[in-house]
Amino acid sequence: MLVKVQKCGNSQGIRLSKSILAKANILVGDDLEVVSMKEQIVIKPVRKIRGKYELKYLVSQIPSNYKVQEEDWGSPIGLEVW
């Protein structure tokens, strides 16, 4: 399928046919991840399970230099026992 990049406001866009979206299991309103790789653009749906993101996707978004640290949430407000 050949498409043409078109002006869309201050951005550019392409239109994808209903059949292409169906083959990729993408619906109108779905969240998509767009990645640019060596003169290619890869568009992938962000899969959610029952309103939650997949763990595999969430873990892939953690920066490689992330350091785990303890958070101080302040003094207990209610009847919490820690």
Q: Give the overall pLDDT as a whole number.
A: 87
Largest sheet: 2 strands, antiparallel
Oligomerization: single chain
Given helix and strand content, the structural type is alpha+beta
The helix/strand series, from N terminus to C terminus, equals EEHEEEEH
Q: What is the number of beta strands?
A: 6
* Number of helical regions: 2
Ends apart, CA distance between termini? 60 Å
The proportion of residues in beta strands is: 25-35%
Across the major sheet, the strand order is 1-2
Residue share in helix: 10-25%
Q: From the alpha-carbon coordinates, what is the Rg to the nearest angstrom?
A: 20 Å
Label the overall shape.
elongated
Give a quick rundown of the structure:
By secondary structure, the chain is of the alpha+beta class. The protein has helices at residues 18-23, 55-60, and strands at 6-8, 11-13, 32-37, 40-45, 48-49, 52-53. The longest helix is centred in the first third of the chain and has 6 residues, at 18-23.
Write the topology of this structure.
Elements: E1 6-8, E2 11-13, H1 18-23, E3 32-37, E4 40-45, E5 48-49, E6 52-53, H2 55-60
Antiparallel strand pairs: 1-2, 3-4, 5-6
How does this structure look, described?
With 82 residues, this protein is an alpha+beta fold. The protein has a domain at 18-60. Helices cover 15% and strands 27% of the residues. The chain is built from 2 helices and 6 strands; from the N terminus they run E-E-H-E-E-E-E-H. The chain has a two-stranded antiparallel sheet. The chain is elongated and about 60 Å long. The model has no long low-confidence stretch (mean pLDDT 87).
